[in-house]
Amino acid sequence: MRLRNIPGSREMIAENEWCIQEPEAQQGCWNQHFKNNNPIHIEIGMGKGQFLMALAERNPNINYIGIEKYSSVLLRALQKMEEHPLENLLFIRMDAENITSVFAPEEVSRIYLNFSDPWPKDRHAKRRLTSKEFFSRYHQILAAKGRVEFKTDNETLFNFSLKQIALAQWNLDACTRDLHHDTDLNVDNIMTEYEERFSAMGNPILKLIASR
């Protein structure tokens, strides 16, 4: 479920210092923008930013970029940044299909996908962020030892994702169907807004880690 449209949200985002207005111009130059050579981690579909802001605060030596296509949702994250600025975190409002025009080959060290839109209709399968089409895009921008981390409570989407990893000829490095009771994968886990909600409802959280 998405937030309802907030009138003027796009205008407010356009004026915000933490949201990059022309991300294509930064392709291959993100470290220059952050003014350091730290690894770059991105979250696609970062929602209100709870997960990414917690990561950025915990890991000051990593640069984080949150990608969100819904202005009203992104605005909530930017409002949080106004209250608690973080030098190693930036945001982009864009559709994830365009990530290869925003990041250069091997520019990204890690990609987080959290509770992504399942696009339940078969004709929309290519839009799922764990489709083989998206894994092809990730292949282009990930560093040699980079990885994708995916969390969801949707078992159908999770099963689809496992099949797509094989079709994309990626490696499945780790997998659990009950993250919060997994003694290894749950170490240092940061919960998203959706994760807190679904977990409170008793839904098991599923997670996988994949690499090229």
Secondary-structure map:
Blueprint: H1 9-14, H2 30-34, E1 40-44, H3 50-58, E2 63-68, H4 71-83, E3 89-93, E4 108-114, H5 132-141, E5 142-152, H6 155-167, E6 171-176, H7 193-200, E7 206-211
Parallel strand pairs: 1-2, 1-4, 2-3, 4-5
Antiparallel strand pairs: 5-7, 6-7
Share of helix among residues? 25-40%
Using only C-alpha atoms, the radius of gyration works out to: 16 Å
| Overall strand count | 7
Mean pLDDT level: 93
**Number of helical runs?**
7
Biggest pleated sheet: 7 strands, mixed
Q: What is the overall shape?
A: globular
Order of helices and strands: HHEHEHEEHEHEHE
Distance between the termini: 32 Å
Low-confidence stretches: none
- Name the structural class: alpha/beta
Looking across the biggest beta sheet, what order are the strands in? 3-2-1-4-5-7-6
Q: How much strand content do the residues show?
A: 15-25%
Could you characterize what this model shows?
This protein has helices spanning 9-14, 30-34, 50-58, 71-83, 132-141, 155-167, 193-200; strands spanning 40-44, 63-68, 89-93, 108-114, 142-152, 171-176, 206-211. It is α/β, with parallel strands linked by helices and 212 residues long. The protein has a seven-stranded mixed sheet with strand order 3-2-1-4-5-7-6, with helices on both faces. The longest helix has 13 residues, at 71-83. It is globular and about 40 Å long. The mean pLDDT is 93.
Keywords summarizing the entry:
7-stranded mixed sheet, 7 strands, 212 residues, alpha/beta, single chain, 30% helix
In short:
By secondary structure, this protein is an alpha/beta fold.
